From TrEMBL:
Domain of life: Bacteria
Molecular function terms, GO-annotated: pyrophosphatase activity
Protein name (Swiss-Prot/TrEMBL): Ppx/GppA phosphatase family protein
Bilayer-crossing regions: none
Organism for this UniProt entry: Corynebacterium durum F0235
Pfam families referenced in this protein's UniProt entry, alphabetically: Ppx-GppA (PF02541)
């Protein structure tokens, strides 16, 4: 038996997954997430702030303690959009080397390309879905970027693209009012449309049979759509949302202030001020899939890049 750990540090959150791998079978041991907003202000300043680095270090130190207690043998930590953009990223990577090195000597975070991020997210997201439901279009909506990847279960990737749009990026760059003004929403819609035009050109969206949404914006939308009183990953994983109902929900999220949204127990306090930006991205994605592939529902997956990393580690 090998105990494996995957850590994903994005623009908005840092997440940990620990699993056992025995004879090709993977068993989940521990999964957790903290919103640290590492990418706060990076779009404007080009640097990680001291406060953001401190929040991230504090969370990762806690994760290292958990990994040590759980006797992790292998760990891989990936850093995505914000860490590709920040001028002082060396400070971030030195911190990860110090903390992860306590668990596995020599371990530290690594920057991965948008293409690898998409492939890992795809592998994790479709793991529990019937192969006959493919081809799949997996969309991993993050804080700074959104990955699109189309492919078949266990087969080759047909195309992928990392679009420079995410819930934090839109909130900081365009939707600065609380709630966003009609003009800001119009500008955000236009920006998303520009990004999706590049997705349309690079990814065979039209071949999609099943749209799969993963990461916090999508899972939160599922919890809201189901009227859950508390966040329930078992109810969310594999849930299917209809576009027509989802458009009503995204419109409501865009209309309300972060204070109003934070009252809802299934919206994480650290997501309340950026989920409207995520809702604008989701609206664009629904329009793209409806037009290009005549798809009008999405399946929500609680599995994503963390599960893809674990699968890769287990296969080494």
């Amino acid at each position: 038996m090998t105990r494996l750990a995957a850590v994903d540090c994005g623009t908005n959150s840092i997440r940990l997954l620990i699993c056992d791998s025995t004879d090709g079978k993977i068993k989940e041991i521990h999964r957790t997430m903290e919103i640290v907003r590492l990418g706060e202000g990076v779009d404007e300043t080009g640097h990680f702030s001291d406060a953001a680095l401190a929040r991230t270090a504090n969370a990762l130190e806690g994760y290292a303690t958990i990994m040590d207690i759980e006797r992790v043998n292998k760990v891989r930590m990936v850093a995505t959009s914000a860490s590709r953009d920040a001028a002082n990223k060396d400070e971030f990577f030195a911190m990860t080397a110090e903390l992860l090195g306590r668990v596995v000597p020599g371990a530290q975070a690594e920057i991965i390309s948008g293409e690898e991020e998409a492939a890992l997210s795809f592998k994790g997201a479709v793991a529990d879905l019937p192969p006959e439901d493919g081809p799949f279009c997996v969309v991993d909506l993050g804080g700074g970027s959104t990955e699109f990847v189309v492919g078949s279960h266990g087969g080759p990737i047909s195309g992928s693209y990392s679009a420079q749009m995410g819930c934090v990026r839109l909130s900081e760059r365009i939707m600065r009012s609380n709630p966003a003004t009609a003009e800001e929403v119009t500008q955000a819609d236009a920006y998303v449309a520009e990004q999706l035009a590049r997705v349309r050109a690079d990814v065979p969206i039209g071949s999609t049979r099943t749209l799969v949404g993963c990461a916090g914006t999508f899972t939160t939308l599922s919890a809201l759509a189901q009227g859950l009183e508390t966040y329930d990953s078992h109810a969310i994983h594999g849930s299917v949302l209809r576009f027509d109902a989802l458009r009503v929900l995204t419109a409501q999220l865009i209309r309300e202030s972060s204070e109003q949204l934070s009252i809802n127990p299934v919206i994480h306090p650290g997501r309340a001020d950026v989920i409207a930006g995520g809702a604008v991205v989701v609206n664009g994605i629904m329009a793209l899939l409806a037009e290009e592939a005549d798809v009008h529902t999405m399946t929500i997956s609680e599995k994503d890049i963390l599960d893809g990393i674990i699968a890769e580690l287990a296969g080494e």
